[in-house]
Write a structure and sequence with these properties.
- By secondary structure, the protein is mainly alpha-helical.
- It has one domain.
- The longest helix has 37 residues.
- It is elongated and about 75 Å long.
- It comes from Stakelama marina.
Length: 155
């Protein structure tokens, strides 16, 4: 539910920032002066907002899949075909978030090149390692589910 609220906030901010003469434009002009590349800063911010909305969709899918896995583990049988698909969905979602993180770095560079101050950014190697491990884990779940199905067929 929180991820939907965050995505909604990104959308609202994005719509507000599109309106000419909005408070974001006014604040940027007040901070950096009327000669600053305000339009370019706003365009970069819009791309950043879009990145946030897309990231919220990936995050939502990750959370939904993880909660479904936790529920199935509580039922006592984690090695199911459905869980293998869920772990794979989490892996793809994490890959999407890592790609969006690279996009965020590009957006921050774009904003800085327009003359605005931004937070620092560096690529997160831990996230990329997590993506690889999740794809491996998805395969482990798939093989485990296949073995479980074979065992049920022999008993």
């Amino acid at each position: 539910m929180l991820n939907i609220a965050v995505a909604s906030a990104f959308v609202i901010f994005g719509v507000i920032a599109l309106v000419p003469g909005n408070f974001v434009e006014t604040m940027l002009a007040a901070k950096y002066g009327a000669d600053a590349a305000i339009a370019e800063m706003l365009a970069a911010m819009e791309v950043g907002v879009l990145t946030g909305v897309i990231g919220s969709v990936f995050f939502h899918r990750i959370v939904i899949s993880a909660l479904a896995i936790v529920r199935s583990v509580g039922e006592g049988d984690p090695f199911r075909q459905a869980n293998a698909r869920r772990v794979l969905a989490i892996a793809w979602g994490m890959l999407g978030l890592q790609i969006l993180d690279l996009c965020l770095g590009a957006v921050l560079f774009w904003i800085r090149s327009a003359g605005a101050e931004t937070m620092t950014w560096s690529p997160a190697i831990g996230g990329w390692i997590a993506v690889l491990l999740l794809f491996v884990l998805a395969r482990v779940f798939q093989v485990g589910a296949d073995m479980r199905d074979d065992l049920e067929g022999t008993v």
